[in-house]
Design goal:
By secondary structure, the protein is mostly beta strands. Helices cover about 10% and strands about 50% of the residues.
């Protein structure tokens, strides 16, 4: 039988890969971290009786049971203040009442501005606090309803209003790096492919 010139190198490459996989230690692991993407909507009352719909988005990572922190952003979605946006960080805490119902509280610290400029936002510092109830939809996320307060201490916005929110849970791998071979297994919650919508490496 005639052997093609590249058959031997290819066979050696495959055999080397198999041996390398068998020899690789199975000790390096990366724990799964629980996280949520949370969005909210509320209508702020501005000076002069003007209304501004405020849409928020947060990526929150669990640092302790029922306690999450992460980056957040809020921006004008309705009204005449298009381009008004703030960026910062958020803290979110949940206190379970039953299997599906929980009390939710949170705080946001950030800065920004936009249309309306110094008159509305002053130096740009924004503080937001909220308190409400969350209802779990199982694997489909969580809906929330409550009261929030937005305050620009150096500006003219200080508004308290009801809000609606929706949160979707996911798991992510967070690590500060490691020495040695690549990890070959994952500790913590299951990360089955069918449960993952996207990944960033």
């Amino acid at each position: 039988m005639k052997v093609r010139p590249f058959s031997i190198p290819l066979s050696l490459l495959l055999a080397t890969s198999v041996l390398a996989d068998q020899a690789r230690p199975n000790k390096e692991t990366v724990p799964a971290t629980k996280a949520i993407f949370k969005t909210s909507f509320e209508t702020l009352e501005l000076p002069g009786g003007e209304d501004m719909g405020f849409l928020g988005g947060q990526f929150l990572y669990e640092v302790a049971p029922n306690l999450l922190i992460g980056p957040a952003a809020y921006g004008a979605a309705t009204g005449d203040r298009g381009g008004f946006i703030t960026l910062g960080g958020a803290l979110d805490a949940s206190f379970p009442v039953s299997e599906r119902l929980s009390i939710n509280a949170g705080y946001f610290l950030g800065a920004g501005g936009g249309r309306g400029g110094y008159q509305l936002s002053g130096g740009g510092l924004m503080l937001r606090s909220h308190l409400g109830l969350d209802y779990s939809l199982g694997g489909y996320g969580t809906v929330g309803l409550g009261l929030s307060n937005q305050d620009f201490p150096n500006g003219t916005i200080n508004s308290t209003q009801p809000y609606l929110s929706f949160s979707y849970p996911f798991s992510t791998l967070v690590t500060d790096g490691w020495e040695g071979p690549s990890f070959t297994q994952v500790d913590g919650d299951s990360l089955a492919e069918s449960e993952q919508d996207f990944a960033i490496v």
